[in-house]
Design goal:
Helix content: 25-40%
Mean pLDDT: 93
CATH architecture: 3-Layer(aba) Sandwich
CATH topology: UDP-N-acetylmuramoyl-L-alanine:D-glutamate ligase
CATH superfamily: Ribokinase
Distance between the termini: 22 Å
Structural class: alpha/beta
Radius of gyration: 18 Å
Oligomer: single chain
Order of helices and strands: EEEHEHEEEHEHEHEHHEEEHHH
Strand content: 25-35%
Strand order of the largest sheet: 5-4-1-8-9-10-11-12-13
Number of domains: 1
Length: about 290
């Protein structure tokens, strides 16, 4: 297949209050893309250990295609504490397998078959995975409808201005939340302006097709050259918000690839994310009315 959608970066175990669940933004993204009926693949690395073996078994059980290297580092874990508002706090272990994703001939071959890819900042904290992500993006064919999504996903100060700027230069779709937008705008030297103007600046500076801005309960926006879509956030009973942003990205990108308009894809993404917030963990099965 030459239209594969790839989630690339960290794959790990979220250690949640109620138990251990498989996670990592790229895995969440690819899993939800697959629920929308598109061929999806997770690219990452695990350790030669029981936790890594279990991740691969989980992907196989869920029917998710994966290109997961086994490397001599421990499989990643994140201790997740959820506050009274359902907002997760993260303790991310370092020097783990997904910091050391190798660039292989198999990975280069996958890149050449990729229609869309989603990557973030977290997996670029280490030079090995950062270089692999860059080489993958450079090997990926670029057509008018290719989508290269940088989901900023700032975590625990594990990012730099150089990494963010380089990643934005490589992408044509930027996904960012309101708190991250404030951090990026201060870092890049335009902190004291309206958030709309911040988005327009980034859209123009990096020649983006789309900039997706999520603002929690205040709604979300999709900026495109000359236009902006807004969707309010539905009111739901929140179980937790782990993986909700990844499901939003997956639903939006899947819908665009399936020929939906920006406004249609945005509405589907909002409904999908809201549903995931009502479920425990990052990978619930989505109801068919969302994925049809």
């Amino acid at each position: 297949m030459n239209d594969i959608v790839v989630g690339m970066g960290e794959v790990l175990w979220d250690i949640l209050p109620e138990g251990r669940k498989m996670g990592g933004a790229p895995a969440n993204f690819a899993y939800h893309v697959s629920q929308f009926g598109l061929p999806a693949c997770v690219v990452s690395a695990v350790g030669v250990d029981s936790l890594g073996k279990e991740i691969i078994e989980n992907f196989t059980t869920k029917g998710i295609t994966h290109l997961i290297a086994e490397v001599p580092f421990p499989t990643g874990t994140i201790q997740v504490e959820v506050d009274e508002n359902g907002i997760p706090q993260y303790d991310i272990k370092d020097n783990v397998a997904w910091d050391n994703i190798p660039f292989t001939p198999h990975l280069e071959a996958l890149a050449k078959k990729t229609k869309a890819v989603c990557f973030g900042s977290l997996a670029q904290r280490n030079e090995v995975s950062r270089d692999t992500i860059t080489r993958f993006l450079e090997a990926m064919p670029r057509t008018d409808d290719s989508l290269v999504v940088f989901d900023v996903n700032l975590r625990c100060n594990l990012y730099s201005e150089q990494t963010l700027s380089r990643s934005m230069s490589h992408c044509n779709v930027l996904k960012i939340n309101d708190e991250e937008l404030d951090i990026v705008s201060r870092m890049f030297g335009f902190p004291d302006i309206d958030f709309h103007d911040k988005c327009w600046i980034l859209l123009a500076k990096y020649n983006l097709k789309m900039l997706i801005l999520t603002c929690g309960i205040k709604g979300s926006y999709v900026f495109t050259p000359g236009d902006v879509s807004f969707q309010p956030t539905p009111t739901v009973e929140v179980a937790d918000t782990v993986g909700a942003g990844d499901s939003f990205t997956a639903a939006f990108i899947s819908s665009i690839l399936k020929g939906k308009t920006i406004a249609e894809a945005h509405a589907i993404a909002v409904r999908t994310s809201a549903y995931v917030c009502t479920q425990k963990g990052a990978m619930p099965v989505l109801p068919s009315h969302l994925t049809a």
